[in-house]
Write a structure and sequence with these properties.
Blueprint lengths: L1 H19 L5 E5 L4 H6 L14 H19 L5 E6 L11 H13 L4 E5 L22 H8 L6 E3 L6 H10 L4 E2 L3 H5 L3 H7 L13 H7 L29 E5 L3 H12 L3 E5 L8 H5 L8 H15 L2 E3 L6 H7 L3 E4 L3 E3 L13 E2 L1 H5 L9 E5 L3 H10 L6 E5 L11 H13 L3 E3 L2 E6 L3 E6 L4 E6 L2 E4 L3 E3 L13 E4 L9 H14 L1
Parallel strand pairs: 1-2, 2-3, 3-4, 4-5, 6-7, 6-9, 7-8, 9-20, 11-18, 12-13, 12-18, 13-14
Antiparallel strand pairs: 10-19, 15-16, 16-17
C-alpha cells in the first residue's frame, strides 16, 4: 500500500517537472497494459483491498494520480488521460462499455481531454501499434462512442495518415482532435505540408513497424521511409553543390529513387532509368499482397518527390554498357536490385512447375485451382501464400527447413500473416528440407525423423531468399567518375536499408 501511495506522489512530481520545464500540458498514459491500465483491468488486477475488486476500486489508482497532478500543477494546467477503450484480449478482457465508464469517471474528475486508444502489448494482434494491414480509421467507432458519452474534448488515434481523412473525422463530429505519432517519424513536416496543400509530397508512414522493431533492439526509432529519423543530431542541410553535373541512377526501386531525389535536391542533373514500365521495384510486388497497399504510398511519394526535384525518369529502358560509356556521367548509381535465389544444388529447379514469388505477385503466373507448395517461410513466402489464398480453388502449403515458420520475421508481421494463413486453411510444414523437384511432386526430408517423403503438387514456388542482380558488375574502367552500388544490388536487405543507403550515397556524391 505504501508503494502505491509513493507512486501516486511520483506521478504528481513528474507532472510538476514537466510544467516547470515549460511543457504546455501533461498526458497520463493509462492504456496499453502499462501499470495504470493493469490496475484498471479486471484481468490483471486481482487485488483484494481498496485498489481491487469493484470497478470503482480498480479506478482508484488512476483517480489518485489525477488528483495528485491537480494538486501539484494546479487546476488550470492542461491534463489529458489516455485510455484503452477495449482490451482486445478476448472475452475475459474489458470492453467498450467498461471503457466508457472509465471515461465518464475521468470527466467527473475534470480532466481536460481524453485520448482514446485500444489494446496493448498483451493483445494477440497488436491493436495499439497497428501493423500495415490495418486500415486507416479502423477503430474510429470506439472514439465516436466516447464522443457520444462525454462532453469534454476527445482525441482520436486510429492509423490516420491522410490529411483529408483527418479533416473528415473532425467535420463529422466524431472527434475534437486527431492524434498521430508515427506520421511524424515518417515526415516531420506532415502538418506543414498538409496546411500548404502539398499532400502529394507527404512521406506517409506505411505502418511497417520498423521503428518499434529498432527500439526493441536497443536502437533509436529509425524509420524505413525517412532516413533522417533518429539521426537529427547528426543531420545537416544538404550541400547544394551539384552544379548541374550528370548523375545516372539505374533502377527505380526505393534505394534508387531516394538516391536520385537527394542528388537532384543538391543540384545534380539526375536521370533515373527503369527497365519496367513503372517504379517501385520489389515494393510494387509487395503492394499486391492483401492489406499491403500502403507500399504504393511510398512509391507515389518517391516518384512525386523525384519529379518535383527535377529528376528525369525514363521507363522501359535498360542501358547497355556502351550507352553508359557514351554518356560518361559524373556519377553512376547501380540500384538494379535483386532476383530470387534458385539453388543449383536442388535437382529439378528448372522444371516448368517451378516459379518464384515475383512470378506470382506480378501476375505472370496465376495458379488458379492448383495445389501450390511454397518452399521457404520468410516474410516474402508468407505474403505470397496470402496472395495465393485469394485465387479461386487454389490450395496452399508452406514448407520450411527451420523448426519454426518464419523464424527470422519480426513478431508483428509474423503474427499478422500467420493469423490470416490459418484462417485460410494454409498448411504449414516446418522442419522439412527440400531434396528434389520432379514433374508433379517434390521429395523432402523430415528433419526430426530423418525420413524421406514425397508430396504431389501442381506448382512449386521457391522463396529461398534474394541474390543481387549484379547486372553492371563488369563495367569498363572509367565509365563514370564515381560508381556506386546500393540496395539489393549490393546486398539483399529490407526497405530501410535501401532507403538509407540511397540517402547516404546521394549526400556523398
Amino acid at each position: 500500500m505504501d508503494e502505491i501511495h509513493d507512486l501516486v506522489k511520483r506521478f504528481g512530481a513528474a507532472a510538476l517537472r514537466l510544467k516547470e520545464a515549460g511543457f504546455d500540458g501533461v498526458e497520463v498514459h493509462a492504456a496499453h497494459f502499462y501499470l495504470i491500465h493493469q490496475f484498471l483491468s479486471p484481468t490483471y488486477n486481482q487485488r483484494k483491498d481498496e485498489y481491487g475488486g469493484s470497478s470503482e476500486n480498480r479506478f482508484r489508482f488512476l483517480k489518485e494520480i489525477v488528483e495528485e497532478i491537480r494538486k501539484t500543477c494546479g487546476a488550470d494546467y492542461p491534463l489529458i488521460v489516455r485510455v484503452s477503450l477495449e482490451e482486445y484480449i478476448g472475452e475475459n478482457g474489458y470492453h467498450p462499455d467498461y471503457g466508457i465508464t472509465i471515461c465518464k469517471r475521468l470527466e467527473a474528475l475534470d480532466v481536460d481531454a481524453l485520448d482514446i486508444t485500444a489494446s496493448g502489448s498483451a493483445s494477440p494482434r497488436g491493436q495499439s501499434i497497428e501493423y500495415m494491414t490495418y486500415e486507416q480509421g479502423w477503430r474510429r467507432f470506439l472514439v465516436k462512442a466516447v464522443k457520444r458519452s462525454v462532453k469534454i474534448p476527445v482525441i482520436g488515434v486510429c492509423v490516420i495518415r491522410d490529411p483529408a481523412y483527418a479533416e473528415e473525422m473532425l467535420a463529422s463530429g466524431d472527434v475534437d482532435f486527431v492524434g498521430s505519432a508515427r506520421n511524424y517519424l515518417a515526415d516531420a513536416e506532415w502538418v506543414n505540408k498538409a496546411a500548404a496543400g502539398d499532400t502529394a509530397l507527404i512521406r506517409r508512414c506505411i505502418s511497417c513497424l520498423r521503428c518499434i522493431e529498432n527500439l526493441k533492439a536497443g536502437y533509436p526509432a529509425y524509420c524505413s521511409v525517412n532516413p533522417a529519423a533518429g539521426k537529427e543530431f547528426e543531420e545537416k542541410e544538404l550541400e547544394k553543390d551539384g552544379n548541374g553535373r550528370s548523375v545516372i541512377v539505374l533502377g527505380a526501386g526505393p534505394g534508387g529513387m531516394q538516391a536520385a531525389l537527394i542528388a537532384a535536391q543538391r543540384g545534380f542533373s539526375v536521370t533515373l532509368y527503369e527497365k519496367e514500365d513503372h517504379a517501385g521495384g520489389q515494393l510494387a510486388l509487395a503492394a499486391a499482397v492483401p492489406g499491403k497497399a500502403k507500399m504504393n504510398w511510398l512509391i507515389s511519394y518517391l516518384t512525386e518527390a523525384c519529379r518535383d526535384a527535377g529528376v528525369s525518369i525514363v521507363y522501359n529502358k535498360e542501358l547497355r554498357a556502351e550507352e553508359l560509356s557514351a554518356l560518361h556521367p559524373y556519377a553512376l548509381i547501380d540500384a538494379t536490385g535483386g532476383t530470387a535465389l534458385i539453388p543449383a544444388s536442388i535437382p529439378g529447379t528448372d522444371l516448368p512447375i517451378v516459379c518464384t514469388p515475383a512470378d506470382i505477385l506480378s501476375g505472370r503466373i496465376l495458379p488458379k485451382g492448383e495445389s501450390v507448395l511454397i518452399v521457404g517461410s520468410g516474410l516474402t513466402g508468407l505474403e505470397t501464400a496470402e496472395y495465393l489464398t485469394t485465387l479461386p480453388g487454389t490450395s496452399v502449403m508452406v514448407m520450411e527447413m527451420d523448426s519454426k515458420i518464419a523464424p527470422t520475421a519480426y513478431i508483428a508481421s509474423r503474427t499478422d500473416a500467420m493469423g490470416k494463413l490459418l484462417v485460410a486453411n494454409v498448411i504449414l510444414m516446418p522442419g522439412r528440407q527440400l531434396l528434389a523437384i520432379e514433374e508433379d511432386r517434390v521429395r523432402f526430408l523430415e528433419i526430426s525423423s530423418g525420413e524421406e517423403r514425397e508430396l504431389p503438387v501442381d506448382r512449386v514456388v521457391l522463396s529461398l531468399g534474394v541474390r543481387s542482380v549484379a547486372a553492371y558488375k563488369d563495367l569498363p574502367e572509367g565509365i563514370a567518375d564515381h560508381v556506386y552500388t546500393i540496395g539489393d544490388a549490393a546486398k539483399p536487405g529490407r526497405i530501410m536499408e535501401a532507403i538509407h543507403q540511397g540517402y547516404q550515397i546521394g549526400k556523398k556524391l
